[in-house]
Sequence to fold (347 residues):
Amino acid sequence: MADSVAKLPPPRAGRVQADLLDVVIVGAGPAGLSAALTLGRSRRRVLLLDGGPPRNASVSAGHGLLTRDGMHPADLKAQALADLAPYDVTVCPDGAREVRREPDGAFAVRVGQDWHRTRVLLFATGVRDILPAVPGLRERWGQGVFHCPYCDGWEHEGRALAVYGCGQSAHHLALTVRAWSDRVTLICDGDPALTPEQTRDLRRVGVRIRTEPVRHLRGGPLEDQPVCVTFRGAPPLLVDAVFLAPEQQQGSHLPAALGCQHSDRGRVQVDEQQETSVPGVFAIGDMTGAPQYVVQAAAAGMHAAQVINTRLIHAAVQSLGAAFHKTPDDGAEVTRPPNPTMSSILV
Fold:
């Protein structure tokens, strides 16, 4: 181990921790927590870097998660962290500051002033919502203004609802939200950017279209009032909730810094095993463009953890001169064989 540590270039700041971890997980949302649980139960040495509250921290309750419907996101996270206690998973409240690939194939992750070495790196850093610059909207995000009707539609079913946005995404969201209520208004805040056919679609199903510029939002559940959308030169609109599909950006710059390829939409690209374009670096959850549901993120975390653990098992078996053998009836390999450049560090 000393030889491996000696290969580290002098860090710009901080100390090098001598222990070589199996996996460092960057991000402690549902995806990262799920991966940590599976890896911990696989007897792997894991460092889980938290780095902050969940993206849905502002909502009163999360929905759609089996046996946990209506649970507050903070309570769900607290329970998930408690579930890790029996295993060799170290939870650090700080986020990763810097990452780099080492000559021997390992990764070094800086947390505070310390560098931690790991065989495998797993990103679960999510995305950030870029909300419209409408006064009063950010303060009501998760409290009267929502992203997902599957998560928050039932609580407002049959009531007056609004969709904020323009163009094709707003057209799709308005038609979707109508499944929870037939009292839907599309607020375009200016040019609707709709095709004539899209406008006809909305009118056919009874969706009203407002194009007046929005001034601000008032009221909402925190004030025990309907959400009041005010316009310039037009009457206000009172609704029970507003839905919108905000623009998003990566929650961390570190995957890009390592050279992980991104899609045209800015999502980290992964293969069917959740591995990025950089061998040994995996990514899961919202950051990959997967459907943005808690249960989906948790499932991706479990899947990536299984792939990583299987990769480590194969490398350890091969280092002893043995191998897993396929029978004639076996199909394709379940997991990709270790990259030759990684074999020594995976053992």
In short: The longest strand covers residues 15-26. Residues 1-14 have pLDDT under 50 and may be disordered. The radius of gyration is 24 Å. Residues 10 and 34 are 34 Å apart (CA to CA).
